[in-house]
Amino acid sequence: MSPLMLTLMPWLVTIGFLLVWEFSVWALDVAKFILPAPSVIFGAIVQYWPAIWSNSLQTLYTTLLGFGLAIVFGLGLGLAIGWSKAVYAGLYPLMIGFNAIPKVAVVPILVIWMGIGTGPAVVTAFLIAFFPIVVNVATGLATIEPESEDVLRALGASKLDVMWKVGIPRSMPYFFGSLKIAITLAFVGSVIAETIAANSGLGHLMLAAQSQFNVPLVFAGLVMLAIEGIAMYAVMAWIEGRTTGWAHRGGVA
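The structure corresponding to this sequence follows.
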């Protein structure tokens, strides 16, 4: 397939999907409070644009803030877990158990601690995005070839030198690859908290629209979430390609 077709393929598939959706709703005469057509959703975006825009910015703000915290703490803890067997044995089972807890069950506790507002959304985004970063960084360190470590130690390198010269570069492709997963999960965390304990954000907007049976506005919020998620995923993919392109044969897809 030509490079031009590869570039156009996502747009062609998306347009085709929307056309099938539009025609199906029209042909089956589906009520808009059950499944609105794309044209109706677009009309809702235009009609409620000021509210959608302000709430989209709020969701993006809380997501990026939680995501930033996840990067800082996830990278540090991932390096510690991947390099120290004692830290791995002590913390990894605890982290797996905590990650298994549905974050929607944690939000009420965060509300008690922090109140209703931005805080619970930021922390929830952090909690969801944190685990993939830790796991990928730790995996990158744990997969260092023993031969490379033995050669450096034979040349007089300390354990810290091995980590700095081999371990960290070895884990960077895993780290930047995990950012693409973590940023999308961070949006999930923000919206979960916004539907429970917030006065703004797309989650709050969709919950208010749902209570009024304004289904087109609910779908409009979902569309904005999808756009923000795709945009941030593309940014993370670009950063991955610019920083760790050397680790991918033929470049980053």
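DSSP finds ten helices and no strands in the chain.
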